[in-house]
Design brief:
Layout: E1 12-13, H1 15-22, H2 26-35, E2 41-43, E3 46-50, H3 51-67
Antiparallel strand pairs: 1-3, 2-3
Length: about 70
């Protein structure tokens, strides 16, 4: 999990941090957000992704692939 300097896990990640965590490009991350596959929030002009949203996405992918 992504750790902040204080050692506490980050709750919200930037697009770049989330993409890095999933080993994806920024473009792919924006596409996943646009299609609704990964939920995001806006804070002012900044878009952030909850760490939980990334975990949910990975869990859904795993479940779908097991079912196929």
């Amino acid at each position: 999990m992504n750790q902040h300097i204080t050692g506490q896990p980050r709750v919200l990640l930037t697009i770049e941090q989330a993409a890095h965590q999933l080993s994806l490009s920024r473009t792919t991350m924006f596409r996943l957000i646009k299609t609704g596959d990964i939920a995001s929030v806006r804070i002012g002009r900044a878009r952030r992704i909850a760490a939980e949203a990334i975990e949910d996405y990975v869990h859904r992918l795993s479940s779908e692939q097991r079912a196929a």
